[in-house]
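Subject: Sanity check before I submit

Could someone independently write out the structure tokens for this chain? I want to compare against mine line by line before I put it in a report. The sequence has 347 residues.
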Amino acid sequence: MLKKIIYVLIALIGLYIVLCIVGPKKVQVERSITVNASSELVKTQLADFKFFQEKWSPWAEKDSAMKTTFEGETGMPGSKYSWKGNKEVGAGSMELIAINGDTILQKIIFTEPRPGGGDVCLIAKPTNNATNVTWGMKFEVGFFMRGMMLFMNMDKMIGDKYEKGLAKFKEVMEAAPTSDTKTYNGYEIKEVIWPERNYFGKKATVAFDKLSAFYVENFPKIFNDAINNKLEHTGPPSSIFYTYDEEKKQAECAAVISVPEGQLKGWEKFNVPAANLALHIAYYGGYDKIANAHKAMNDFMKEKGLTQEFRIEEYITDPMTERDTTKWLTNIYYVIKNGGDVQISVQ
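---
Independent answer below. Compare away.
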């Protein structure tokens, strides 16, 4: 009888090893949703672990007593979020590894109920006047877990939570600006939160008809220097405007790119502090008519009794690859904050 039990156990172990051999080595789960908000604002909130925990985490509601800690600069590579909760949420941590264009890369580590981890990817792709958000996770499966994976629908188990989380994210993102959105001269203006950003670039007083040449000369150089120095840059090429003189037909501005950490020698550094209020217009069209969007913004500020500290244009669309000017997207931000002057230093 004992021999039969041993033979059965050996057979079961052998069968399970075969299942582990044919079982999946990797598991990938991905879900998407369209959010009616600008891609830059969406990306900013996706990179904010506090916003995730407080506003749209599908696990937060499963344990109201969950303990959480946050480390590093909010929304910047190196920032970290740790949690410890009940059996449903377990314990672990997430770290923001990098922000590459539309993509946010995170590393997730589980410590309870069982050790594990994987790579998390959040993508915010602009689509017309909205943003397509994709939330995905990929992790390696240890050899002796591969057999179990054949009988577990991880796509459904995790995917359902991702769908619920993304639906909540969409609800929060679309609900907040609605009451603070107005249309002036056909342009929709939204009140948003501005996160702290570090930029590198060149500041100069430039004639209106020389602005394009100024950008064409400096943007490639800044990007190349950042790449050569292995500095992570986020977001599109941008311009910070200080003055815009209609009489003299010239502007004092800086051609910049956002670099969260590190130093870029030979370029000026611009630290733009966080602000509780910024006005945003997603402008579609050629640069020759962008002044109409700025006029709409000024009308809005006048009605609200607001004063700008500075304004920023982000050039989302590359005119060299998209010939149709109606598809050119420029994000216009007017940052409203008392005493929030941009701090400038030369590296």
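---
OP: Matches mine. For the report I'm noting this point. The longest helix spans residues 154-178.
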